[in-house]
Design goal:
heterodimer; A: alpha/beta; 4-stranded parallel β-sheet; 13 helices; 19 strands; globular; B: alpha/beta; Fumarate Reductase Iron-sulfur Protein, Chain B, domain 2; Glutathione S-transferase Yfyf (Class Pi), Chain A, domain 2; 22 helices; 8 strands
Chain lengths: 412, 406
């Protein structure tokens, strides 16, 4: 197989963005994919920094980054790369017809599937909870047969968040699809179809009106924002989508537009190709062996970007306490993962989790370093959840770190 | 010997992330299907459940493997579905339909017809009459399809008349049923390409159907017999240093991966190392600098469809890469599963789902004026011609033509 300039390992958000930024630099890129990344689980919004170390809500993410610990990936990536990465991302998705709103100066808000508010940074137009803030009436729409979406619970929680001075109306629509319990993705595909869309409009029309916002689960089309744009125009009032349970419609929308951008840039994607082993010469990697249980294929490149994820995705593993492993390159993993500190007693506590902080130790160039700070492999860069020093769930920074590290590594 | 690591145990790696449901083409096309996760992985974990207890949409899985491709945790989702299906039929052998039996045992019919003078001619005539009288539908076979016709001379017989230069470099061809009895011209093109590269092609008529259609129809014990026979032959040639090469990506997936996944035998895993898909083998020759170089730029535009069973092999799209490298104007359709998935789309009850699944691919092919569709899988090619009326070829036929023109 012909040699590439860059091989990206992993096709989650960090992997896809690494590939896109690298190709934008004129590089010949090969992406090794194994599984669908976390997109089906991930709301497809870009959190940058929701809460600081003291679990206090962050008002302005770009400012708050200065106050993070030196071990935090953002400190290594730097504010400039983060700003450029956000610009790059917004341009990329807008060019694919799926624009995101938001900036690093303030938080955006989304409404979760259970009616709580969550701070985030970049979101598609269909998920702007802020549209509900000044509305007189919120119409909460359930879908018959849709599992994991409870309008009454949504309403109770939303009243606590947005206050009692609004009117809350509960409504239900029917897709008339018979068969299994529906997921939001099924309903979104129904809305993609001409017939489904017409039925959706006719059932929602009666609820539309001035000062009202219609709040729906993530059902406004499985691709981009075409259904949302058309629907808002046709109803003449705002419509807002909540986040929801997997499979995440918006996560998959984001994945599809990024894959479409990848295709346009001629990036070669090798599916089902698990990276098994690196071939090295001195402290440089020359090739990756990947794919196939029977025989691995050799993928040569000048530069490698590791985006295989953390414990969830198997990018980092731990056989016993403290015995971490980064499976492809054997890069040094750090984190305070002794048994007593591995996990807090409460999963959703006010402290970061030990296991979440474990990852590859890197320097400011995002290359793995040993305990003395020496670069281990000269041409291997580490991005996304492979990195140590942050608990994305606690601080709401997952896709932000993925995006910014991908950008920096690809530019290096 | 039983392997320690068995695909059937991979269900315990499932974290119920729903990635498989999100990409499953059958889930998308058919609202009855509960989705891969809820059939194989979830159900096979009910170790102590009554064997007659099963998920009632189990039969809707097509074994296309998109779930395996998308699973982040290495769960052999489709194989778990097939094992569950086999368990069900073991408890309910009476539930096998006439169509199950016929569509999974085409190799038997093909062998019988080859022994009767004019047998194939009359069988083809019979199929034409049967199709026009609507008899296929009565047997549970999709009445809107044209059932593939038997070739006048099967590849196994045609092969004997091919004059090949002798060589120390040899490969054993695994033709598979479709190339052997329906499209022998693909086998001929394979021999031409290998000869041009200095290889002599061998055949061994002890080979039997890979068993893929048997697995899908729930005849797992029979599939195991086929696996054992084929694996013994592959191992025999491995000992002689002769690799086995297939031109059908479903056959090569079966021989390379699925035997081991389904039956967990160390002999199967070992034999798999001696099996190659045709373009995988050619790419290895290319990397060693041993592939005959050629330039070929016909005036027509081509479109390539990647069979799911090739994508599942985790080695990229070697045929597409190679045709692009030699100068063929060819684009990747990249439009997902064709919907046929071996014998799946031939069942009357699956026809509608099968065509719905293929619709995105049909649209991609019809979107431009393509001369031909290039695809490594025989049943994908049938589905493509049925859904688009555009002719299709195996990439080895394009390469053979390139060598001839050079």
């Amino acid at each position: 197989m012909s040699k590439s300039d860059v091989v990206v390992i992993g096709n989650g958000f960090a992997g896809l963005m690494s590939a896109l930024v690298s190709a934008d630099q004129g590089k010949k890129v090969t992406l090794l994919s194994y599984g669908a990344g976390t997109f089906p689980l991930n709301s497809g919004v870009v959190d940058v920094l929701g809460y600081d170390d003291a679990a206090k809500l962050v008002e302005c993410p770009i400012q708050a980054i200065a106050g993070l610990s030196e071990e935090h990936p953002y400190k290594k990536i730097g504010a400039t790369a983060l700003e450029d990465a956000v610009d790059f991302f917004k341009k990329t998705v807008a060019a694919e017809g799926f624009p995101y709103v938001g900036s690093l100066k303030e938080q955006q808000w989304v409404i979760t599937g259970i009616g709580t508010l969550k701070p985030t940074c970049l979101i598609p137009e269909s998920m702007q909870a802020s549209k509900c803030f000044d509305a007189n009436e919120i119409v909460l729409v359930g879908v018959k047969g849709l599992k994991d979406f409870y309008v009454d619970m949504l309403k109770d929680n939303l009243v606590k968040e947005l206050g009692n001075d609004k009117k809350y109306t509960v409504a239900a629509i029917d897709t008339y699809i018979t068969g299994r319990d529906l997921t939001t993705r099924d309903v979104a595909r129904w809305a993609d179809s001409e017939k489904g869309y017409a039925e959706l409009v006719s059932q929602l029309k009666g609820y539309a009106g001035e000062g009202k916002v219609i709040l729906v689960p993530q059902i406004l089309g499985s691709q981009g924002n075409a259904v949302y744009t058309k629907l808002v125009k046709e109803l003449g009032c705002d419509v807002v989508e909540t986040t929801g349970m997997p499979p995440s419609v918006n996560g998959m929308r984001l994945r599809d537009v990024l894959l479409s951008a990848l295709k346009k840039k001629g990036i070669r994607v090798i599916e089902n190709a698990k990276a098994e082993e690196a071939i090295t010469e001195g402290n440089k990697v020359t090739a990756i062996m990947a794919g196939g249980e029977v025989r691995a294929q050799k993928y040569e490149a000048d530069k490698f970007i590791l985006a295989t994820g953390g414990f969830y995705s198997g990018g980092i593993t731990m056989r016993d306490f403290g015995e971490y492993n980064e499976g492809v390159f054997g890069l040094p993993v750090q984190g305070d993962c002794v048994e007593e500190k591995w996990v807090n007693k409460q999963l959703f506590s006010d402290k970061k989790q030990g296991f979440a902080m474990a990852g590859v130790r890197v320097n400011d160039s995002l290359r793995g370093v040993d305990e003395s700070g020496n670069v281990v492999l000269e041409n291997v860069y580490v991005v996304g959840r492979n990195l140590s020093g942050y608990d994305f769930c606690f601080e709401h920074s997952g896709n932000g770190v993925a995006l910014a590290s991908a950008y920096k590594a690809a530019k290096a | 010997m039983e392997l320690e690591e068995r695909a059937r145990d991979s269900a315990d790696n499932c974290i119920a992330c729903t990635s498989c449901i999100a990409v499953c083409p059958i889930t998308k096309a058919n609202p009855e299907y509960k989705g891969p996760k809820l059939v194989g992985p979830a159900h096979s974990r009910m170790h102590f459940s009554d064997p007659s207890d099963y998920e009632d949409t189990l039969m809707l899985c097509s074994n296309c493997k998109n779930c395996d491709i998308t699973c982040p945790n290495g769960v052999s989702v489709a194989t778990l579905n097939m094992l569950e299906r086999a368990k069900y039929f073991k408890a309910h052998p009476e539930k096998h339909t006439q169509a199950d039996k016929m569509l999974s045992h085409n190799f038997q019919m093909a062998d019988i017809l080859n022994k009767i003078p004019l047998g194939k001619t009359f069988a083809n005539l019979g199929m034409s009459i049967g199709e026009s009288l609507g008899m296929m539908g009565m047997m549970g076979i999709a009445s809107k399809r044209t059932t593939p016709r038997f070739a006048t001379t099967y590849f196994r017989d045609l092969f004997k008349s091919i004059k090949q230069p002798k060589s120390d470099k040899k490969v054993l061809f695994y033709p598979g049923c479709f190339i052997d009895v329906n499209q022998p011209e693909v086998g001929v093109a394979f021999v031409e390409v290998m000869n041009a590269n200095g290889y002599e092609v061998l055949m061994d008529n002890r080979f039997v159907c890979c068993g893929s259609p048997l697995v899908v129809a729930g005849y797992m014990d029979e599939a195991r017999e086929h696996a054992d026979k084929n694996v013994a032959i592959i191992s025999e040639y491995a000992a002689k240093g002769i690799p086995v090469v297939a031109c059908c990506t479903s056959c090569s997936l079966m021989l390379k991966n699925e035997y081991t996944e389904l039956f967990a035998q160390s002999e199967m895993k070992e034999a798999a190392k001696n099996v190659y898909d045709a373009f995988e083998f050619l790419r290895i020759l290319e990397e060693k600098g041993e592939l005959k170089q050629v330039k070929f730029s016909p005036d027509h535009k081509f479109i390539y469809h990647a069979p799911c069973h090739l994508r599942a092999q985790g080695m990229g799209l070697p045929a597409l890469d190679m045709l692009q490298e030699i100068g063929v104007d060819i684009v990747n359709a990249d439009a997902g599963c064709c919907g046929m998935s071996g014998s799946y789309g031939f069942h009357e009850k699956n026809y509608e789902t099968s065509m719905k699944v293929g619709s995105a691919l049909f649209d991609a092919i019809k979107a431009d004026d393509y001369h031909k569709v290039v695809c490594d899988c025989g049943t994908c090619r049938m589905q493509i011609e049925h859904g688009t009326d555009v002719k299709s070829v195996h990439p080895i036929q394009v390469l053979a033509k390139a060598y001839k023109k050079a």
